[in-house]
Each structure stands twice: as structure tokens, then as C-alpha cells.
Amino acid sequence: KLHIGVLAVQGAFIEHERVLESLGAEAFEIRQLRDLDRPMDGLVLPGGESTVQGKLLRDLGLFEPLQKKIREGLPVLATCAGLILLAEKLSNDKSTYFATLPVTVERNAYGRQLGSFFVQHDLKHVGNIPMTFIRAPIINQVNDGVEVLAHVDSPSIGDKIVAVQYKKQLALAFHPELDLDRKVHQYFLGMI
Ligand code: GLN
Description:
Layout: E1 3-7, H1 13-22, E2 26-30, E3 42-45, H2 50-59, H3 63-71, E4 76-79, H4 81-86, E5 87-90, E6 101-106, E7 117-123, E8 127-133, E9 138-142, E10 147-154, E11 158-166, E12 169-172, H5 183-191
Parallel strand pairs: 1-2, 1-3, 3-4, 4-12, 5-6
Antiparallel strand pairs: 6-9, 7-8, 10-11, 11-12
Bound molecules: glutamine (GLN).
Glutamine (GLN) binds at residues 47-50, 80-81, 84, 107-108, 134-135.
EC number: 4.3.3.6, 3.5.1.2
Pfam families: SNO
InterPro entries: Class_I_gatase-like (IPR029062), PdxT/SNO (IPR002161), PdxT/SNO_CS (IPR021196)
């Protein structure tokens, strides 16, 4: 059985836990430092508010140990705010967080208020899936070694990269945990 740590300081973590458990994995919540003592085969960074998550990660002393594990190759599934936490660079924000994923990300790229939408679209290696975007970031630039898994054309801002993989880091601008389709999580567990 795979043991997946789900960052549970803020945001849509419960939804990820339910999907992972329905696929036969064991999901446990990471809320404090001692949660990192448990065996962990993979990590989920959920959607939410990246500024809040980043601050809590530091306040709780989770930031450095998690960054080290990701750098050392711990498989990560990051959605929305999670993608922002992984990005090496943010085009419209001076902060960076784990900075383990060599891409440039733009926060709230679709606009803050009207930025939520839904499409059905292909994700490379995974297939056709529902994609729900909620005040989503986009990936503006990818560096060497980063594989683009999907770009989505939207009327507001045009064709943009919304999913990438770099080594064992799978990062998505949308929220697969909010739809019934479980193929993304299945792919992630397979990747481990
Ligand atoms: N707008 C959020 C942020 O910048 C991300 C939105 C989300 O995770 N749904 O952190």
C-alpha cells in the first residue's frame, strides 16, 4: 500500500485524500513536523491560497524538511496553489516557495473574479479528463527537462500551458480532486 502525505494546513486537501483512498492508497495529513516521521511514498500539495500555505509551512517548521524531500526526489502531485509553491519563479510576485520546478508561473492569470471555468481536455499520459480552473495560475515558461502535458485555449487569455511534469513532480493549474474522474491520481500513484 502506498502512503501519501497530503499537506493539510489550508485548502482543498480532504478531496485529494478521498480520491487517493478510493484508489487503495493510504492518505495521511501533514499538519506538523512530527507527521513527517511517517513513511511517505508521495506528497500532495493541494489548491488553496499559496501565500497562506507558504506562511504556514514556514511557521510550522515544515518548509525546509519538505523542500529537502522534494529535492531528493519525493514524488509530488501539486494542484493550483501547489503548482505555485513548486515554481522556481513567479512572474507577478516577488516570493518563491519550494522552487524545485524549473518553470515560471503567473498567479491568478485568468483574473481574480471571473477566473473560474471548466473544460474537458487531453492530458498527456493520462487521457481526456475534466479540468476545473479556480483563480488558476498558468505556466508562462518551462525550462529544460520539463515536459508539457497540456495547454488549454481560453477565450480570455488564449493558449496557455496548464500541466507539466519534471522528474517526479507533476504540477497542474487545475483541480482534478474536485471532479469524479480519478485518472490523474491513478497516474500519480503509478508514477511512484
Ligand atoms: N489563486 C490562488 C493562489 O494564488 C490559487 C488558487 C487555487 O488554488 N484554486 O494561491
